[in-house]
Amino acid sequence: MSRPHVWATKVAALIQGGNTQAALSQIKVAPSVTDVEQLRTLLTQAKLLARNPVLDSATQDQISALKGSRLHRSP
Question: Residue 31: how many CB atoms within 10 A of its CB?
């Protein structure tokens, strides 16, 4: 595994500290698919993803949203 980005470790720390709402807000504005995937890996290793299905679905939704095609409006 590559070295986790700072974003993933900070959001994982929020979750471990019990601040799930702040973590969900951060997941919704995730910078990239790689960051969210690394967050999922960190949460799986800490066994937090299995205990919190809301985080599981939020990360999966954000990955699919970031991977999907972007709709652009013409200027």
Answer: 12
* Distance between CA atoms of residues 55 and 45, nearest Å: 14
Our CA angle for 45, 51, 55, nearest 5°, is: 85
Tell me what percent of the residues of the chain surpass a pLDDT of 90.
73
DSSP state of 31: S
The Cα–Cα gap between 68 and 31 comes to 14
Does the global pTM surpass 0.90? no
**Half-sphere exposure in the Cβ direction for 43 (13 Å, CA):** 31
What's the Cα-to-Cα distance from 28 to each of 1, 25, 36, 44, 58, rounded to whole Å? Answer: 24, 5, 10, 19, 8
